[in-house]
Amino acid sequence: MATNNNNFTTHTKVKYKIPESTIPRMSIYSRIFSESKGNDYFSSKDIAAITGFSSAQIRRDLSYFGQFGVPGKGYPINELKQKISAILGIDKEWRVALIGMGNLGSALLTYKGFKEQKFKIIAAFDNNMKKIASNINDFKIQHINQLKSVVKQNEIKIAILTVPGKAAQEVINHVIDCGIKLILNFAPIKLKVPDYVHLQNIDVVVELERLTYYATKGMRTLVLKKTARLFK
Ligand code: ATP
Question: pTM value?
């Protein structure tokens, strides 16, 4: 997958040009279609009712790969499922290494949703000798020094980092050195990676602050409206 200057993603395997902003919605469509049992078609209205996206948005998203609804029926679910899976690259299994087996890492290790979406955690790593050789859910925690050989032997392509911020840059450098180019980072720190590495950051506190911002904004709007009414 490559991104050009217009923020469009081109897929080498599947020749579609899709704006980056559409990708998270594709993920949601994929999950809905996978969970839909017994439905052959979905209208954009059906999809809108489940997702909360507008019908116009859905029609635009699905038209990026030449998918148009059948009048009176809607979109063929199986065909869409296959196309979206190919676009997202989830038509095959992805092997994942989890690094940093603290509270968050341990919770992710037992999360069933990864497997359902074709992500398989193959190995878990830490540098704390007390944790290494211990088991979580039948998983043996390995020393981070073993990462290179385990990645090679098991064709691991993705790493999830759940190490503390102060260790994250050193760990990510090592992960990249081991040949991994796709990294999901939970450490609350901005990390430097070379251009060929794709890094996604998830900072739970930033997301919570986004919520509190909206709550405060809502309150601010209410105060302004009340004040405006007083001066009428
Ligand atoms: P803990 O169970 O140790 O209290 P925690 O949930 O408070 O963990 P952190 O302090 O953020 O979490 O650490 C997460 C995990 O990352 C720990 O298990 C820690 O041993 C591990 N870790 C820290 N530095 C490294 C490193 N350089 N390489 C691999 N793992 C590391």
Answer: 0.78
